[in-house]
């Protein structure tokens, strides 16, 4: 039985009882409980099932290293899977449910797997589920998904809010235990800007539980004193419930602050992600106790010795009436002593060591009447869903049972491992500490910053010192060193306080208990509780040749569970080293990657969700479109009207109407999003000749020319109309999505290749609103507005002119992307809406209607005009598209020219642009491939072309398409077969891509 | 995430403010060049473990390109210099020599 004691629980507020549920059962705890401590107080030791064998799993630890106690938390918009009970604060109304069981926690069908464990060894996924291949999808995976799985994915939208926080400091201290606080005080008093992050909601770390005296006062009072003093320092920021999640290059740190996890009903963000730049980082992250590997060490009731002590001291919870302590070090004696002081029974301390004389703590334990069994170990733990006893053996032997001790809890300690994760994230190296059998930071090989100097310093237990006085001295030395290196003066009177020194006996590494455990025992000695990896699995991996630690990890799944091996790694490494007959440091560790402990996905997203997910660019006429039925299409960060729906018509009908209306009467297109780049300077013409495949330096002032741009690799990257304003000024139109990219492209060449050329480029895209006035009535509408002469004689096709229309200062380009009489008119952005309104009024009797991007696409496709991104995809050169006329033969050089001379680019068998017309008038499926005779070397049908653009043309009353076809232009009239994904075959004839007005008579009027 | 200093405007900022532009000091080969030279220019890039000269653009800042000398292994930044240069400045090279004695011989 685990239960709440009448007294004790230093973190509890017993005046504030709290109600919560677990698997629908109503339970009670206190403010200050974690979910784990409250479950234990209600005798709910069984909290889940293991991943593979569905073994019953109980709470093992008291912190983020907990491997088993993962629960589904909350409901609906506050549902969260895989929440760790040990780090989940209890609050009134909390709902938790256990995971990974089916149909129930108490009775689990999958538990049959444990009887099959002989057949499910390491790598069983790789071995068993390989064949037959189809069975994986239809048999194995559905069964595994049904009976296993950790947590459920949330279905509802998260109702909480999250935020990012940016901060800068001189020293970021991760960990608010005695080491972190003392380092913070030293740095704070030296005048540095300090941030301290503590993952739990209380200061002091383990020290207040483990006891001791500093400067003559109990350590918890010493902690309180430090916190009080730190709170008075304005240059120090203290954050509790804030975990240092990851250390990244050049002193970048992510902190994960949980603000409302204990009070979901309170307004405000739930989590806050701190994005900190620190000149230096001190990792005072403490240490984690290791389990011992003995048979049955996974039975609920077997816990870490320090966790048993934590629950007792912090939460007034006894995990059992009779607790056997098993250890290889002195620290676990503190648990036995604390239990005894609380009036609980400790039948024995089973200590694997044989020591010449008793240490201070051993003497204390013995004085309390506890039986200390030196040189002994646990052969096996008895029990199913709960410990009922232990069988004792000699540690040196093979597991012959000497006696059985009945108990309902086992507190184990295999020694302590410094939390080196944050030290290691950015490349800090480790060294093996033989005396304490742990990896600790190799301070001579720290992670390096921008200046090539180390930017992380470990302090306290995180650097591998565990005694209280050592911890304080180490923290002071760390802070002192960091302050000096950053150029701060540490006040002379600052020094490390005096802690009472306890003489502990050395620990003894124990990687298997008993050391000669038989196969039968090894098969029950767990290393990774969540993933069901046992000593026998790691040995098998080694035997099968997985000698690298990274390979053995993946083969056995050791350390791959959500706890990322916080408990299992070192024991696993040591087991592997043992199996390989190698020493531990030569086997090495797997890589430590951030985050240290899982953080919520929502905190990473922060505010970037919903309407503020990303900025949206709006043209000056955006709101007008919105109120006139626009269906929006995202183009880059812009939103453009796809079509304007009238009445109850469908989108398709709207598009068809817009095409017909524009061809027969008049249409308006908001073309403001098109990129507009001013290129100016004495060398601008020469520069544009390099940028475009055709000649721009010869363009006459007052004229426009369509141009193509290629990358240095020869591929088409953008197109648009270029106008020459004066002797040294050009305006280059780019595609909507290309403005910033092409601007950057130009700048790159100007700044890094031809930096002696006198050219400036300015992106004026947003300075102008641009309206395309298109259709046979376009001129009449402009004449109605009145002002400049827009006749053919005054303003011919491909001319531009400045002037005035309807009182607006305008720049008019006679260019056409539709094949109709067309004026693209630019006005100052601030006049965009007014000008648009004026055009709608002027065009009212002329049949004016706005049109969207889909209509624009059909108009251009009917004319055989290419579209960047449809006809081009980054692998297409202009020559593929029949655009030879736009490639200068005279120029010696332009970007892409040399590349286009390569043999593959001049291959006559490159697919070429053609028009495609279905034989029955239907619309070809977009992206469909034309099949050819025979098969390729992979047994697939040979291909001879593909569709790049395809539409129904209302003008022609049939489906039209463009495509790239092998030797296409030479095969006019031939019929190709395009199999669709719908199972049908489409037949299309190769035709000229210009379907509408091939002579261009309509646009040149 | 690196911290870099823009040589053009002097601002020291997060990597997210910059855009990486690959190996510095490439020599352009255009029409008339051999296939080998053109291939070398267009595709072949140094990938040293250690000292590397790179192009960066202060894309979300002043918009200017500049050069950075950096250690690809330790991420130490030796300095930034003008984009309008055919080779790193001598002063920078000697600073790198101080930090990485003999690095030039390793190429």
From TrEMBL, chain A:
<dbReference type="InterPro" id="IPR036188">
    <property type="entry name" value="FAD/NAD-bd_sf"/>
</dbReference>
<comment type="similarity">
    <text>Belongs to the GcvT family.</text>
</comment>
<dbReference type="Pfam" id="PF07992">
    <property type="entry name" value="Pyr_redox_2"/>
</dbReference>
<dbReference type="InterPro" id="IPR041117">
    <property type="entry name" value="SoxA_A3"/>
</dbReference>
<feature type="domain" description="FAD/NAD(P)-binding">
    <location>
        <begin position="170"/>
        <end position="422"/>
    </location>
</feature>
<dbReference type="InterPro" id="IPR013977">
    <property type="entry name" value="GcvT_C"/>
</dbReference>
<dbReference type="InterPro" id="IPR006222">
    <property type="entry name" value="GCVT_N"/>
</dbReference>
<keyword id="KW-0560">Oxidoreductase</keyword>
<dbReference type="InterPro" id="IPR023753">
    <property type="entry name" value="FAD/NAD-binding_dom"/>
</dbReference>
<dbReference type="Pfam" id="PF08669">
    <property type="entry name" value="GCV_T_C"/>
</dbReference>
<dbReference type="GO" id="GO:0046653">
    <property type="term" value="P:tetrahydrofolate metabolic process"/>
</dbReference>
<dbReference type="Pfam" id="PF13510">
    <property type="entry name" value="Fer2_4"/>
</dbReference>
<dbReference type="InterPro" id="IPR006277">
    <property type="entry name" value="Sarcosine_oxidase_asu"/>
</dbReference>
<feature type="domain" description="SoxA A3">
    <location>
        <begin position="523"/>
        <end position="606"/>
    </location>
</feature>
<dbReference type="InterPro" id="IPR029043">
    <property type="entry name" value="GcvT/YgfZ_C"/>
</dbReference>
<dbReference type="InterPro" id="IPR028896">
    <property type="entry name" value="GcvT/YgfZ/DmdA"/>
</dbReference>
<dbReference type="InterPro" id="IPR027266">
    <property type="entry name" value="TrmE/GcvT-like"/>
</dbReference>
<feature type="domain" description="GCVT N-terminal">
    <location>
        <begin position="621"/>
        <end position="891"/>
    </location>
</feature>
<dbReference type="GO" id="GO:0008115">
    <property type="term" value="F:sarcosine oxidase activity"/>
</dbReference>
<dbReference type="Pfam" id="PF17806">
    <property type="entry name" value="SO_alpha_A3"/>
</dbReference>
<dbReference type="InterPro" id="IPR042204">
    <property type="entry name" value="2Fe-2S-bd_N"/>
</dbReference>
<feature type="domain" description="Aminomethyltransferase C-terminal">
    <location>
        <begin position="912"/>
        <end position="997"/>
    </location>
</feature>
From TrEMBL, chain B:
<dbReference type="InterPro" id="IPR006279">
    <property type="entry name" value="SoxD"/>
</dbReference>
<dbReference type="GO" id="GO:0046653">
    <property type="term" value="P:tetrahydrofolate metabolic process"/>
</dbReference>
<dbReference type="InterPro" id="IPR038561">
    <property type="entry name" value="SoxD_sf"/>
</dbReference>
<dbReference type="GO" id="GO:0008115">
    <property type="term" value="F:sarcosine oxidase activity"/>
</dbReference>
<dbReference type="Pfam" id="PF04267">
    <property type="entry name" value="SoxD"/>
</dbReference>
<protein>
    <submittedName>
        <fullName>Sarcosine oxidase subunit delta</fullName>
    </submittedName>
</protein>
């Amino acid at each position: 039985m685990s239960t709440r004691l009448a007294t004790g629980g230093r973190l509890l507020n017993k005046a504030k009882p709290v109600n919560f549920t677990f698997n629908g059962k109503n339970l009670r705890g206190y403010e200050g409980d974690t979910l784990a401590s409250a479950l234990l107080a209600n005798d709910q030791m069984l909290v889940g099932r293991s991943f593979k064998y569905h073994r019953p799993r109980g709470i093992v630890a008291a912190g983020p290293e907990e491997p088993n106690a993962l629960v589904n938390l909350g409901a609906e918009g506050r549902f969260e899977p895989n929440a760790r009970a040990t780090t989940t604060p209890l609050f009134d109304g909390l709902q938790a449910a256990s995971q990974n069981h089916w149909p129930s926690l108490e009775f689990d069908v999958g538990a049959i797997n444990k009887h099959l464990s002989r057949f499910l060894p390491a790598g069983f996924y790789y071995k068993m589920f390989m064949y037959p291949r189809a069975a994986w999808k239809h048999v194995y995976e559905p069964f595994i998904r049904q009976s296993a799985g950790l947590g459920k994915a949330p279905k509802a939208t998260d109702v909480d809010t999250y935020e990012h926080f940016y901060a800068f400091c001189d020293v970021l201290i991760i960990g608010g235990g005695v080491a972190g606080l003392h380092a913070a005080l030293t740095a704070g008093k030296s005048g540095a800007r300090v941030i301290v992050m503590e993952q739990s909601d209380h200061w002091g770390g383990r020290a207040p539980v483990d006891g001791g005296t500093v400067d003559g006062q109990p350590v918890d009072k010493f902690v309180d004193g430090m916190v009080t003093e730190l709170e008075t320092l304005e240059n120090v920021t203290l954050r509790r419930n804030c975990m240092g999640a990851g250390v990244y290059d050049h002193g970048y740190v992510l902190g994960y602050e949980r603000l409302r996890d204990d009070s979901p009903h309170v307004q405000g963000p739930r989590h806050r992600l701190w994005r900190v730049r620190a000149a230096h980082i001190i990792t005072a992250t403490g240490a984690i106790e290791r389990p011992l590997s003995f048979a049955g060490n996974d039975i609920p009731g077997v816990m870490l010795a320090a966790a048993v002590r934590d629950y007792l001291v912090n939460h007034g919870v006894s995990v059992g009436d009779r607790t056997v302590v098993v250890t290889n070090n002195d620290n676990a004696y503190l648990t036995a002593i604390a239990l005894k002081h609380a009036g609980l029974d400790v039948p024995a301390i089973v200590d694997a060591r044989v020591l010449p004389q008793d240490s201070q703590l051993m003497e204390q334990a013995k004085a309390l009447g506890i039986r200390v069994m030196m040189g002994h170990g646990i052969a096996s733990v008895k029990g199913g869903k709960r410990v009922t006893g232990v069988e004792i053996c000699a540690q040196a032997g093979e597991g012959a049972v000497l006696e059985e001790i009945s108990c309902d809890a086992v507190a184990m300690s295999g020694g302590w491992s410094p939390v080196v994760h944050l030290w290691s994230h950015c490349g800090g190296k480790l060294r093996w500490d033989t005396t304490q059998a742990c990896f600790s930071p190799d301070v001579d090989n720290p992670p390096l910053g921008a200046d090539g100097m180390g930017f992380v310093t470990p302090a306290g237990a995180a650097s591998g010192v565990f005694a209280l006085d050592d911890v304080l001295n180490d923290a002071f030395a760390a802070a002192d060193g960091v302050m000096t290196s950053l150029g701060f003066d540490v006040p002379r009177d600052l020094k490390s306080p005096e802690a009472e020194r306890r003489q502990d006996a050395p620990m003894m590494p124990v990687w298997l208990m008993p050391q000669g455990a038989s196969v039968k025992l090894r098969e029950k000695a767990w290393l990774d509780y969540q993933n069901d990896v046992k000593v026998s699995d790691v040995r098998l991996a080694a035997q099968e040749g997985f000698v690298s630690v990274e390979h053995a990890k993946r083969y056995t799944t050791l350390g791959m569970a959500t706890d990322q091996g916080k408990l299992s790694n070192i024991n696993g490494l040591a087991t592997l080293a043992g199996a390989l007959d190698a020493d531990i440091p030569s086997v090495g560790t797997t890589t430590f990657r951030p985050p240290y402990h899982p953080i919520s996905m929502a905190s990473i997203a922060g505010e970037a969700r919903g309407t503020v997910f990303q900025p949206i660019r709006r043209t000056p006429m955006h709101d007008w479109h919105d109120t006139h039925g626009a269906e929006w299409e995202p183009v880059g960060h812009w939103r453009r009207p796809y079509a304007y729906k009238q009445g109850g018509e469908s989108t398709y009908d709207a598009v068809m109407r817009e095409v017909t209306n524009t061809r027969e009467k008049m249409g308006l297109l908001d073309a403001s999003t098109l990129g507009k780049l001013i290129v100016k300077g004495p060398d601008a013409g020469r520069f544009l000749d390099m940028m475009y495949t055709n000649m721009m330096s010869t363009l006459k002032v007052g004229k426009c020319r369509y141009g193509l741009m290629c990358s240095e690799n020869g591929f088409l990257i953008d197109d648009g109309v270029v106008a020459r304003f004066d002797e040294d000024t050009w305006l280059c139109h780019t595609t909507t999505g290309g403005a910033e990219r092409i601007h950057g492209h130009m700048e790159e060449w100007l700044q890094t290749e031809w930096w002696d050329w006198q050219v400036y480029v300015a992106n004026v895209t947003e300075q102008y609103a641009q309206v395309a006035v298109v259709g046979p009535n376009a001129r009449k509408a402009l004449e109605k507005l009145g002002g400049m002469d827009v006749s053919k004689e005054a303003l011919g096709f491909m001319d531009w002119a400045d002037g005035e229309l309807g009182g607006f200062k305008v720049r008019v380009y006679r260019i056409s992307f539709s094949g109709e009489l067309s004026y693209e008119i630019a006005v100052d952005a601030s006049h965009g809406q007014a000008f648009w309104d004026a055009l709608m009024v002027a065009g009212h009797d002329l049949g004016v209607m706005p049109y969207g991007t889909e209509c624009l696409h059909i108009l251009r496709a009917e004319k055989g005009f290419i579209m960047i991104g449809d006809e081009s995809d980054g692998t297409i050169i202009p020559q593929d598209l029949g655009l030879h006329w736009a490639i200068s033969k005279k120029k010696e050089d332009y970007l892409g020219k040399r590349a286009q001379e390569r043999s593959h680019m001049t291959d006559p068998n490159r697919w070429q642009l053609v028009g495609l017309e279905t034989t029955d008038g239907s619309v070809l499926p977009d992206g469909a491939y034309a099949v050819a005779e025979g098969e390729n070397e992979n047994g697939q049908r040979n291909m001879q072309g593909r569709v790049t653009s395809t539409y129904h043309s209302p003008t022609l009353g049939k489906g039209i398409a463009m495509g790239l076809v092998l030797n296409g232009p030479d095969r006019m009239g031939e019929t190709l077969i395009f199999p669709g994904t719908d199972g049908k075959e489409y037949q299309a004839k190769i035709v000229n891509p210009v379907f509408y007005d091939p002579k261009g008579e309509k646009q040149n009027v | 995430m690196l911290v870099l200093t823009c040589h053009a405007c002097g601002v020291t900022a997060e990597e997210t403010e910059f855009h990486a532009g690959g190996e510095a000091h490439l020599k352009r080969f255009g029409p008339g060049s051999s296939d080998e030279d053109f291939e070398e220019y267009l595709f072949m890039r140094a990938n040293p473990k250690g000292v590397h000269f790179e192009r960066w653009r202060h894309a979300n800042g002043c918009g200017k390109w500049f050069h950075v000398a950096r250690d690809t292994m330790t991420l130490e930044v030796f300095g930034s210099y003008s984009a309008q240069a055919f080779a790193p400045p001598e002063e920078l090279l000697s600073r790198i020599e101080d930090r990485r004695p003999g690095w030039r011989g390793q190429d």
